[in-house]
Amino acid sequence: MYDIPLGFSSAAVKAGLKNNDYDLAVIKSEPPSVVSAVYTQNSFQAAPILFSKKNDKNNIDLLIVNNKIANSLTGKKGYDDVLDIVKYASEVFKIKKENILTASTGIIGEYLDTKKIKEGIKKASDSMSFDFDNIARAIQTRDKFNKIYTSSMEVSGKTARFYATAKGSSIIHPNMATVLLFIFTDLNVEKTALNKAFKEAVNKTLNRISIDGETSTNDMALIMANGALNNKPITERNKKLFKELKNKLDEICAYLAKMIILDGEGMTKTIIVSVKRAKTQNDAFNAAQKIAVSNLVKILFLSKNPNFEKILSVLGNIDININNLLLQVNDVDIYKNGEINKNEEDMAKLKKDIDEERKENYITIDLGFNTKYEDYYYFTDLTQEYISIHSSYNI
């Protein structure tokens, strides 16, 4: 049993969308929540995303998440289906349509079974409780484990609670990473402050992970803050509390982002690439991203005889100070002072180190400029199992 934020109730139900498993989640906020949301940058945004983007400036009473069908690439009918579901939910819960958000995950290009979803919403309305039991399961597709994080924050002698859950295991890459991520808190926070803190947290975490370099049509990260704690509203002007809020959202998003990477389909290893002393901040980001999405680099961590010098060629057009460049893998120098490390003992140690299954590995790249510009990415290897999974499934 988790310590749930005040004012939230929920229900996860088996609506018959996904065999005999939880496939519909409904979360109610009372009082209504201010929200901050980040969506996929994919041009083919799904109908629930298009709908939610119209409403997220309002205070939100209800969030509805369905599984099995993504309701993406479904045109006018797909959007009309969302309107139909929302209209029904507004009548059942006696709230306005403008105060509802929706999200979907599952198969692209197929239509929702609106009858089953509406029946599920009615079932949920009759079973709402002050916990989040099975919500994580209801939003998952092929996830191998629940991704849940709870935390708290002291504000003026009161304890604000945070409950967060996410789904995602493939098609992971900014902007955003392919996930559904929801955070609920009873904290009272001004919307502009919430927006700034949350979007910065997403950028530093969910937008720094990559499994396969692909984004989808349904990605959404959302925080709902209903103010039920009745603390004095947190604003950017209160620098101490605002910093504490930013740190808390960084903590939550970082944990869930790491859980998504660890659940990467077919993965056997995780890798963190850190780029330091770049000529510009943009160079630091681009270098880290190039490494993270390179199939060549990913496969190196599976190789029986890895040639890690190839990492240097992946950097491409990034401005590099060749004579001062340093490349390390798991603290072993690969390239330093303009020369490749040919020490056989070093290479044998590194190979043995990497052969340890599911071990976290590190690439460090110092681009050799006298600056403080740095960035990072968290990514996985690319295995035959990943290829097998994505060549044989429809969800």
What characteristics describe this protein?
single chain, 395 residues, alpha+beta, eight-stranded mixed β-sheet, seven-stranded mixed β-sheet, 15 strands, 31% helix
Structural overview:
The two termini are 30 Å apart. α1 (47-55) packs across α2, α2 (75-93) runs parallel beside α3 (114-125) and α5 (191-204) packs parallel to α6 (239-262). This protein has helices at residues 47-55, 75-93, 114-125, 135-138, 191-204, 239-262, 281-293, 295-300, 310-314, 344-354, 384-390; strands at residues 8-13, 24-39, 60-66, 100-104, 147-155, 158-167, 180-185, 209-210, 220-225, 270-278, 326-329, 332-336, 339-340, 360-366, 373-380. It is α+β, with helices and mostly antiparallel strands and 395 residues long. It contains 11 helices and 15 strands. The strands form 2 sheets. Strands 1, 2, 3, 4, 5, 6, 7 and 9 form an 8-stranded mixed β-sheet that branches. β5 and β6 (158-167) form a beta hairpin. The model is unreliable at 170-177 (pLDDT under 50). Helices cover 31% and strands 26% of the residues. The longest helix has 24 residues, at 239-262.
